Amino acid sequence: MTAGNAVQTSSLGEQILGRINALAAISEEAGKLTRVYLSKELREAAELILGWMREAGMNAHLDAIGNVCGRYEGEQAGAPCLMLGSHYDTVRDAGKWDGPLGVITAIACVADLNRHGKRLPFAIEVVGFADEEGVRFASTLLGSRAVAGTFDEGVLNTRDREGVSMRDALITFGLDPDHVGAAARARRELLAYLELHIEQGPVLEAQDLPVGVVSAIAGATRLAARLTGMAGHAGTVPMALRRDALTGAAECIGAIEEFCRTDANGLVGTVGYIHATPGATNVIPGEVSFTIDVRAPTDMHRKRAVGEIVRRIEAIAGRRQLVLQIDVTHENRTAPCAPWLKEQIAQAIDAQGFSVFELPSGAGHDGMAMIDVADVGMIFVRCRGGISHHPAEHVELADVDAGARVLLRVVENFRPRECHLSPQVTG
Ligand code: HGY
Ligand code: MN
Ligand code: MN
Predict the structure, then answer these.
(1) Which 3 state secondary structure label does DSSP give 364?
(2) Beta strands in 231-277 (DSSP E)
(3) Quick one: which ligand is closest to 199's CA?
(4) Most ligand 1 atoms within 8 A of CB, residue of 132, 136, 378 to mutate
(5) Is 317 in contact with 323 (CB distance < 8 Å)?
(6) 246 and 232 in contact (C-beta within 8 Å)?
(7) Domains present along the chain, CATH in parentheses
(8) pLDDT of 214-242, one tens digit each?
(9) What per-residue confidence (pLDDT) applies to 52?
(10) Residue 325, exposed/middle/buried by CB under 10 A (0-12, 13-18, 19+)?
(11) Which residues of the chain carry a pLDDT beneath 70?
(12) Ligand 1 first shell, C-beta below 6 A
């Protein structure tokens, strides 16, 4: 896509699809898509995205935490902005749409404005957040928390599985860990934060709709558990005398699944990672670490569930004479989307000839952090079978195009809130 008055030779969707594939080629694993926070592949992806932003007529830079940031001025330079965005990091063995679709679609919308020489009464900023998934370091939403001014500098000392601290990883990436605070923005600079993202669930497909309006983003609690028993000889220690950390963990994991499965109110619990040591066939595991991800439609329900899950794990550990260490590593409250933004998204969907359908997000998004500095709106795009966090993640070209046209329509018809138009808006 070239800036200026280039003839539009392909649909928005086709241009977006080409860039989705280009970005998906940047991975730290051959044959899989994995691009974690502060990796050299994330840096390579950042340079590619910054180039696209500049082609679209934006000033673009990497901010102090590693987000890619582009700005397209309005009629008056320096005006508050409508911020569009999503994340450009991925989970391990990821699909190519989760995150990048929102970033690339936002850039395509700005490029369309630029191609037609359009300037709006406000600026448009596009941000690609550097760490929404929280794969490398236990915490998550690091990029959007930095922008929202809620970044906890204590996480700089967390280490990845290779023992590299976030502090050192930032330095290797070319950033100054003591300078992360410079990424923070003031509320008065942002009219709203608007994110387009794949649904990552089956609801839009079941409704036979290409797009939807997000009502709220479900909160999440992540925990790290460690069970310590006694390693021993697999051939000589009688079963009744064992303190096997791995069979203890297995009972805990079964208990988590059973508790969530029998809950009637949408509770979900996941153990996504487990590691047993010493890890030899003929040695009884002495220590096991595993993660727990708990989500529910309301914060109260989730917190109650986390309390009950911890109690059940404590009881199992006690009965098996295992030492338990369990910590909350990350917690995000449910983030409601702003009614005035939902209304403008609904109008854009209707104007594009689609039925308006509102749905909650079970997946977490950067809007959970951005809500601390701006009102949040989200547009969901249908994905095949609701599959996500999996290489089979897929969006049909027509839906890519539909999402782009809806986002562009919201942007071109965006009406800031009255409070933003009065000069005394404070930060
Ligand atoms: O885990 C989530 O819900 C998001 O994809 N990071
Ligand atoms: Mn994700
Ligand atoms: Mn995502």
Answers:
(1) coil
(2) 232-233, 268-270, 274-277
(3) 3
(4) 132
(5) yes
(6) no
(7) 3-217+334-420 (3.40.630.10), 219-332 (3.30.70.360)
(8) 999 999 999 999 999 999 999 999 999 99
(9) 98
(10) exposed
(11) 1-10, 419-427
(12) 132-133, 363-364
